[in-house]
Amino acid sequence: MSDELLDSLKNLVGKNGYLEAGDVGERYYTDPRGTGDVQPAFVLRPSTAGELSDIMKLCHAAAQPVVAQGGMTGLVGGGKPLGDEIPISFERMNRIEELDTKTNTMTVQCGTPLQTIQDHADQHDLLFPLDLGSRGSCTIGGNLSTNAGGNRVIRYGMARDLVLGVEAVLSDGTIVSSMNKFVKNNAGYDLKQLFIGSEGTLGLITRATLRLHRKPRSQIVGFCAAPGFDAVVDFMHHMQSAMGGNLSAFEVMWTSVYHAIIDAVPTVKAPLSRDYPFYILVEVMGGRPEHDQHVFETTLNEALETGLIVDAIISKSQSDVDDFWRVRDSMAEAMSKQHSPVGFDISLSIGDMEVFAAEIDKRLAASCNGVRHFIGGHLGDGNLHLVVAAGESDPPPREQIESLVYGLTGELKGSISAEHGIGMMKRSHLHQSRNPAELALMRTLKNSLDPKCLLNPGRIFEMPGTNATDSTHSSELL
Ligand SMILES: Cc1cc2nc3c(=O)[nH]c(=O)nc-3n(C[C@H](O)[C@H](O)[C@H](O)COP(=O)(O)OP(=O)(O)OC[C@H]3O[C@@H](n4cnc5c(N)ncnc54)[C@H](O)[C@@H]3O)c2cc1C
Question: Same domain, yes or no, for 366 and 404?
């Protein structure tokens, strides 16, 4: 970066608007897996969309690349600065601007932490249902840019489904404001969708209008065991039929995951014995607590009688709910305690999941000496988290494991990224989930919105003529 640009940027944002040299802490260049590399010399911290727009005008004129940073909880190396990129941290754009109880919407700045949004909705007897383990640190800007998922997608959808309006700044500084509060808007292209899930490569999200839901009055959780994968799927359909829209989570753990959690995480109480092939956490949220509890218990009893499940325990208190969820939420911790774990976050058609599990077992056994694998995930969304860990011997090269897993995912026409995005970490495998016409259209979009390739260069895919090369690997142990 030239001294001239540096001075102009400093003058523009004032002394609270930037950090330099020793003041740039680790949080501006490390991610949850500690894969920080080089400390950037300079970080920008804009406080308004207008200021960001002026920053981008200067960067555009000087062809200066930038990288957007929310809470830096992303798992694919997207926010980590590379080369001479200037990090733009949204930590000062963290205000809730409005909660509108007529439209059930909340308007927020992009750097607002997810948990702040959840708590604010809760205080008004409303619910913002997006929920991730990183809720205390991740920001809504990061959630929208990655189209985050989480545990309640089966009922409320992904981040994309929970937003009505977005404001974004383009690479030349243009502010595009599509901040409507209504659900239906077919007046031309739905422009906000360009910025949701595009990982900061097409525009920088500055504000959003979020869609809130009425807060449910009941939350009931069952922890169940099933005798086989077909029974798991039939059980999910049984619950969907009986509970309708009240079904809010259906989380599945293969037996190896359950054992790993019980063995590795001392704070977890085992709700059921270790004898079963599959464990399921099923949750409903409704409006009539006693009625919901009765229907839930009856439905689970029917499943027991027909053999869809072989054991079950139902929550009777909030502390039971918390205990059952702690089992599922401890998957990441249990996996991180394995030997050299390599994590994957993939999507498959439910009909292919059993084939995938059997085939990956066979392929890993054939070519990766002694490795173990663990599978769990959000079954209703077709999303599996797979972790491959070394056994007694040295771990096989990560690339070998990745090529087996992504190869099989591609053969089954699945997605190599269900919810975490592509970032730097998965871009060499993107072609295994996207065909050449799709990839070409993605490049066309990037080229029209950001022809100088200044916004998060090299994330998702490389553009010809750019050199954002980084072989960072992180792992997705969730
Ligand atoms: C314990 C844990 C649990 C997790 N669970 C889940 C889960 O269940 N589901 C899930 O989907 N993810 C999960 N994640 C991953 C992560 O929390 C999400 O990807 C989250 O949405 C990232 O938000 P962030 O603010 O931390 O974004 P960052 O990590 O700061 O950024 C992520 C990407 O978005 C870009 N970006 C950030 N802000 C903006 C902006 N305002 N405009 C444009 N681009 C921007 C960045 O450049 C980067 O490419 C988990 C992570 C952890 C550590």
Answer: yes
Mean pLDDT of 263-287: 96
Q: For the chain, what is the domain count? A: 4
Map the chain to HEC letters.
Answer: CCHHHHHHHHHHHCHHHEEEHHHCCHHHCCCCCCCCCCCCCEEECCCCHHHHHHHHHHHHHHCCCEEEECCCCCCCCCCCCCCCCEEEECCCCCCEEEEECCCCEEEEECCCEHHHHHHHHHHCCEECCCECCCCCCCEHHHHHHCCCCECCHHHHCCHHHHEEEEEEECCCCCEEEECCCCCCCCCCCCCHHHHCCCCCCCCEEEEEEEECEECCCEEEEEEEEECCHHHHHHHHHHHHHHHHHHEEEEEEEEHHHHHHHHHHCCCCCCCCCCCCCEEEEEEEEECCHHHHHHHHHHHHHHHHHCCCCCEEEECCCHHHHHHHHHHHHCHHHHHHCCCCCEEEEEECCHHHHHHHHHHHHHHHHHHCCCCEEEEEEEHHHCEEEEEEECCCCCCCCHHHHHHHHHHHHHHCCCECCCCCCCCCCCHHHHHHCCCHHHHHHHHHHHHHHCCCCCECCCCCCCCCCCCCCCCCCCCCCC
The answer to whether the CB of 446 is under 6 A from ligand 1 is: no
Residue 63 and residue 157 share a domain: no
Residue 434 lies in a domain: no
- In this structure, are 395 and 358 located in the same domain? yes
Instruction: Show the domain range for 272.
Output: 218-328
Q: Answer whether 110 contacts ligand 1 (Cβ < 6 A).
A: yes
Q: Are residues 201 and 289 in the same domain?
A: no
Atom of ligand 1 nearest to the CA of 423: 49
168 Cβ below 6 A of ligand 1: no
CATH number of the domain that residue 251 is part of: 3.30.70.2190
Whether residue 150 is contained in a domain is answered as yes
**Whether the CB of 139 sits within 6 Å of ligand 1:** yes
Residue 176 forms part of a structural domain: yes
CB of 56 closer than 6 A to ligand 1? no
Domain limit, last residue, from 157, 180, 214: 214
Ligand 1 pocket residue status of 65, Cβ below 6 Å: no
Residues 320 and 361 in one domain: no
Query: Is the pLDDT confidence value at 396 over 90?
Result: no
Residue 452 CA to ligand 1 center (angstroms) comes to 25
Residues 40 and 126 in one domain: no
Residue 71 and residue 113 in one domain: no
Q: Whose CA is nearest to atom 3 of ligand 1?
A: 133
Which of the pair, 253 or 379, is modelled with greater confidence? 253
% residues pLDDT > 90 (the chain): 87
pLDDT in tens, 14-43: 999 999 988 999 999 987 766 667 789 999
Tens-place pLDDT, residues 185-213: 999 999 999 999 999 999 999 999 999 99
